[in-house]
Amino acid sequence: MEFWLDNSSGTLTNLSAYCKSVGVYGLKFPTQNVTAFSDLIENVTNGRPSAPLTITFVKDTTVFAHLVALNRNTPLSLDIREGIRQSPQITGEPCFGISSSATSGYVLGSMTADDESYICEFDVYGPTAPDFATTNHA
Amino acid sequence: MTRLNPKYTRVYANGYDISGTARNYGTVGTKIKLPTGAAYSDAIENTIPGGANIVCGPINAFLSPSEDIGLHELLKAGNIVTDIMVAEASITEPAVGAPVFVWTMQEAEYTANDDEIVGVNVVFPDASYTTVKGYDNPFGLLVHAKGAETGANEAIGTIDNTAPSALGGIFAWQVFSSNGTCTVSIDDSATNLNNAAFAALSGATSGEVDATTTPASGMVALSKTATVRRYLRWQLALNSATTVTFALAFIRGT
Question: Model-level pTM?
Answer without folding.
Answer: 0.92
